[in-house]
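FAQ

Q: What does a record look like?
A: Structure on top, sequence underneath. For example:
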């Protein structure tokens, strides 16, 4: 008796799912031959499963050709699944893991008009830590999460937010120039994360990374925050790596299937980028 039969799994459903998964991850339209070659299934088996999937609306044959593509029912199911995802619920275990692996407070933040709002957190147990209240609001221009959340917004929209909120100097490191902030957003887009280098509160630093939905749009940000005495230049590359990796995992939970952020697994690249930031 094979393993699938012993475990009670239905092999035909497994095969059907593999075909759907292949169609979702490959070219928009596929042929019978490409499916059989990629999955190692017999032509007759694939043809029979495709006929069933077509009858259910999960797959459709392209009119006037021998190619197949996902049907409207598959799209409907995907949209239904995405609509049932709750950001806070999905992010919660990852925030806790980020806090436990770094020992620093982990935050979940969204943009609300011209401010960022902290909608969830896992507090660090360190004796000297950053306390962030859920529901707290902060400006975009002096927070790592603010930089991340506005990094891909049209420039005129960013300028409108800054015009409305102003750019009050909160510390000696606060960015108070629109042009300097726009340059900071450019760097954030390029490296895939943002830093708050004592720009909002003296003695506090933060690393932030974006969360994306199934369309690739930035819908939220996560961050780790803590005192500068622990967020040393020597430690920042590891905090950056952990934050980016957790953000990527949450994004996958939210349906994102885009490319990984460059530089995540390249310590030299991270150190070079960090050196650039520290020297500015």
């Amino acid at each position: 008796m094979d393993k699938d039969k012993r475990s009670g799994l239905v092999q035909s459903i497994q095969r059907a799912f593999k075909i759907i998964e292949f169609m979702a991850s490959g070219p928009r339209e596929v042929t019978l031959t490409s499916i059989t070659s990629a999955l190692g299934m017999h032509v007759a088996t694939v043809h029979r499963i495709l006929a069933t999937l077509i009858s259910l609306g999960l797959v459709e044959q392209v009119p006037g050709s021998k190619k197949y593509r996902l049907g409207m029912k598959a799209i409907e199911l995907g949209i239904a699944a995405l609509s049932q995802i709750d950001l806070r619920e999905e992010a919660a275990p990852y925030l806790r893991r980020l806090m436990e692996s770094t020992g620093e407070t982990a935050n979940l933040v969204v943009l609300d008009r011209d401010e960022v709002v902290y909608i969830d957190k896992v507090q660090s147990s360190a004796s000297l830590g950053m306390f962030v209240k859920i529901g707290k609001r902060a400006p975009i221009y002096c927070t790592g999460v603010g930089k991340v959340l506005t990094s891909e917004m049209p420039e005129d929209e960013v300028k409108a937010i800054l015009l409305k909120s102003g750019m009050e100097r909160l510390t000696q490191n606060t960015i108070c120039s629109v042009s300097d902030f726009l340059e900071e957003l450019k760097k954030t887009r390029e490296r895939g994360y943002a830093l708050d280098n004592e720009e909002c509160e003296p003695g506090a630093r933060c690393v932030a990374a974006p969360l994306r939905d199934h369309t690739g749009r930035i819908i939220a940000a996560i961050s780790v925050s803590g005192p500068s005495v622990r967020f040393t230049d020597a430690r920042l590359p590891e905090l950056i790596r952990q934050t980016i990796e957790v953000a990527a995992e949450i994004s996958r939970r939210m349906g994102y299937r885009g490319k990984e952020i460059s530089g995540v697994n390249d310590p030299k690249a991270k150190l070079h980028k960090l050196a650039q930031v520290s020297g500015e």
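Q: Is there anything notable about this one?
A: The longest helix spans residues 236-253.
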